Amino acid sequence: MVVTAMATGLLFTACKKHDEASGASDREEFAAMSARSDAAAELVFDDVFNNIMGVSSEVGVGGTGVFGRADVSAGNGYRVEGIDSTTCYTVITKQLSTSTRFPLQITIDFGAGCTGRDGRTRKGRIIIVYTGHLAVSGNSATTAFDNYYLENVKIDGAYKLTNTGTPDKKSYTTQVINAKLSQPNGNYVKWNSEKKVAQVEGGATLFIGLDDVFSISGNAGGSVQMDGRYFQWSTAITAPLIKRYTCRFISKGTLSLMKGNDAVAVLDYGPGVCDNKASFSVNNEDHEITLH
Prior knowledge:
Layout: H1 27-54, E1 90-95, E2 104-109, E3 114-115, E4 121-130, E5 140-150, E6 153-163, E7 171-182, E8 188-201, E9 213-226, E10 229-244, E11 252-259, E12 262-271, E13 277-282, E14 285-290
Antiparallel strand pairs: 1-2, 2-4, 3-4, 4-5, 5-6, 6-7, 7-8, 8-9, 9-10, 10-11, 11-12, 12-13, 13-14
């Protein structure tokens, strides 16, 4: 299961449901559910980021996400387009203007089920509209989801990636807008997020993603309904999250988990080791969680 517990976002609309983390005795449960849900949503949209950037060198760096090569140990590690990828998906390119190449719509169609090199199964379609190459400041990619699933979790909402960098410093803004991650049993996470993603390593190799390291800052917020329990939270990154291309998981950084104006817990992704572990601290106790 990709999402152990699920979430919503920065802007909360009026909700008739009762948030059940109202007493001090509920702080640990609130921290556990919100920490797992926020981490799970972060992983889902990190996967979307990698696929947007990885489609091809015409729109991004190429070779990241499901487009990455299986073995980078030989030679110089460059990806060979169309040869060394798992291609159970179909890529459909549509030029939206008769006079210019961009805006360009690219659909990644995973069909009824497509298991990638990472062992995860995706189905449905991701539809991306690029205003231009994502290496150019000001260009963006806006993504919609058509009956899209990562494992058994259905992904709805919108995602926008914008190059906000300068020639000497690469950075992007990511926006997750009204996302909903739904499980078959009715449990769900709703999530909104706005983050700055700054490249801190690998900038000298513009079209090679293998050596890329990103630092993530910003805020998010969500709500989770899990087995009849309902919680709302928001987050603020207090130490930049570190994400390496060569690691599926965030390996470093901390964020504060908030209920309203109350800082209930701290979610810690660790000291920089690539693993699927994180921990949250609440009531002066640390609890380990496993990321999926």
